[in-house]
Design brief:
By secondary structure, the protein is mainly α. It has helices spanning 3-12, 16-26, 29-41, 48-57, 61-75, 77-81, 83-91, 101-104, 109-122, 126-135, 146-162. The protein has one domain (3-162). It is elongated and about 50 Å long.
Length: 163
Amino acid sequence: MGLLDILQQAIGGNNADAHIDQVTQHASTDEIGAGLAAAMRSEQTPPFGDMVGQLFGNSSPQQQAGLLNQILATLGPAAASALAGGALGRVLQPGQTQLTPDQASQLSPDQVTQIAEHAQQQHAGVIDEVSQFYAQHAGLIKTLGGAALAIALAKMKQNATRG
C-alpha cells in the first residue's frame, strides 16, 4: 500500500490519528512538514502559538531544546531572546546561541506559546521551520488532535496527487 492509499484511508475514516503511524512511516519529512505547516496556518485549528505550546508540553527536554533552537536559528539570538518578555533571555547565558535541554525545560508551554506567537510576527517562515522540526519527531504529531491531523493529512494528499 502506497502513501496515497494510506492518506485516502486516513482521510476517509473518522480517526485520523489511528493512521498517523502508517503515514509517518511512508511519507518523507518534507511531506509531513508541509502538512503540518498547512494545519498550523489553518483557520480551522488553534493559533500557531497554541499548537507549538501544546507540542512543546508533550516533548522531551531534548525535543524542547531542538524546537527553541530552531526558533533561535530562524530569528537570530538577539531577536529571539527578547521574545515572550525575555523568557528566552533569562535562560540563555550571554553569548550563548543554543539552549540545552535543561535550559529549555525551565520554560512553560505558555511561555513557548508566547515565544512562538512573537516569532511568527517577526518571521512568517518560522511556521515552516517549526513544522519541519516536528516532522522529524512525528510521534508528537498525534498530540495535535483530530482537526489538525485531518488538515495535515488532506494537505499531504493534495500534494501527493500533484506529484
